[in-house]
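hiii so um. not sure if this is the right channel but i have a protein structure encoded as tokens and i wanna go backwards to a sequence. like what aa goes where. can anyone help
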């Protein structure tokens, strides 16, 4: 018999979240990750992300919000502006049910919160600090061979190991990649004025600029530009970087101070042609990657996690082997079409709002004007934006 039900490869946000959820369902789980299970230093590399309401609801259901909520800032207003046309739309939670649209969190803070949840539920003994070298299938199990010589047996191997997934490669699953020739500059600032729990986003030729509220008077910046321009911006001295940000963001936060490192992240979309193979499943960035224009990436991963956990729990309730192809294909049939739609949506938004094509200007302004003036349409867009399904 396998020693484990599920072996999770990857100890980042997705792997930690999945391990905690599966443990809640009563599965025996372990994580393989090359880095030790230690907290990331803060401030870290400047990355930040919005957790949509759907992710908040899943985290609450699995009692993970008690860890995450301590480092997250609720968002109840979203202001979107278009350049150079000047169109503007404001989404307010009060127009719907009054609950936050999303929650802003620093990348490192979220990882540390999920690591804390992992330690509480699984302990350090379920963490293997090593790389996955190979795996094979035998006797109703998958046998994983690790870089430290350890061999682990499990009914199911799950790749949560990012866009360059080793699990996906070893499983022979092809991936389609679409480069955007853009990069995101990410960092955190402290500021003079309160952010008032408001996301500010400017849809600009070249790429969007988003300000995401974080706990306290801190805000996460995600600034997308063509790659050469992004590298130039990231290389500016702090004072010049902040002056340029203040100009681009219309001074909405007042005086600024750099509160993290400044990272540059090349952007692309990618999609695995399959999410499953015999005794293997892919989750999160190992399965799909999107443009950051609509805050989808990690939220799509959490929806994957919920769908996979439910599928495996139902199979076990029926006495089925959780690694069988007909069990795993149910997960793929739920998530791959939904993620395909999200990839198309973010790709279309990026092409419409980031293209430096003057002929698209009326379309861009028209979309935002329509949302600003037609309240039912605005509420529908807000409701759709809060959830990944």
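sure thing!! here u go:
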């Amino acid at each position: 018999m396998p020693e484990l039900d599920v072996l999770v490869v990857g100890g980042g946000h997705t792997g930690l979240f999945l391990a905690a959820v599966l443990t809640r369902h009563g599965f025996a789980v372990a994580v393989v990750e090359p880095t030790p299970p230690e907290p990331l230093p803060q401030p870290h590399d400047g990355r930040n992300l919005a957790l949509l309401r759907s992710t908040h609801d899943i985290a609450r259901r699995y009692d993970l919000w008690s860890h995450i909520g301590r480092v997250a800032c609720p968002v109840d207003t979203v202001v979107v502006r278009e350049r150079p046309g000047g169109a503007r739309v404001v989404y307010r939670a009060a127009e719907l049910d009054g609950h936050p649209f999303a929650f802003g969190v620093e990348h490192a803070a979220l990882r540390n919160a999920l690591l804390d949840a992992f330690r509480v539920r699984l302990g350090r003994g379920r963490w293997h600090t090593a790389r996955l070298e190979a795996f094979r299938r035998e006797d109703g199990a998958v046998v994983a061979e690790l870089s430290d010589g350890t061999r682990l047996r499990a009914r199911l191997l799950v790749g949560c190991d990012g866009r360059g997934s080793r699990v996906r490669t070893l499983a022979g699953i092809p991936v389609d990649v679409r480069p955007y020739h853009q990069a995101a500059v990410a960092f955190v600032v402290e500021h003079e004025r309160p952010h008032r729990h408001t996301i500010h986003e400017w849809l600009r030729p070249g790429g969007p600029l988003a300000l995401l509220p974080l706990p306290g008077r801190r805000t996460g910046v995600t600034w997308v530009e063509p790659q050469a321009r992004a590298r130039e911006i990231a290389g500016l001295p702090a004072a010049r970087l902040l002056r340029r940000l203040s100009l681009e963001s219309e001074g909405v936060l007042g005086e600024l101070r750099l509160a993290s490192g400044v990272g540059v992240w090349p952007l692309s979309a990618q999609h695995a042609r399959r999410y499953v193979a015999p005794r293997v499943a892919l989750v999160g960035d190992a399965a799909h990657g999107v443009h950051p224009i609509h805050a989808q990436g990690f939220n799509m991963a959490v929806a994957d996690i919920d769908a996979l956990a439910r599928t495996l729990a139902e199979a076990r309730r029926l006495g089925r082997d959780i690694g069988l192809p007909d069990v795993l294909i149910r997960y793929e049939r739920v998530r791959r079409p939904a993620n395909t739609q999200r990839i198309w949506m973010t790709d279309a938004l990026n092409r419409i709002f980031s293209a430096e094509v003057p002929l698209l200007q009326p379309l861009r302004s028209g979309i935002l004007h329509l949302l600003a003036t037609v309240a039912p349409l605005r509420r529908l867009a807000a409701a759709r934006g809060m959830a990944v399904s």
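oh and The first helix runs from residue 13 to 24.
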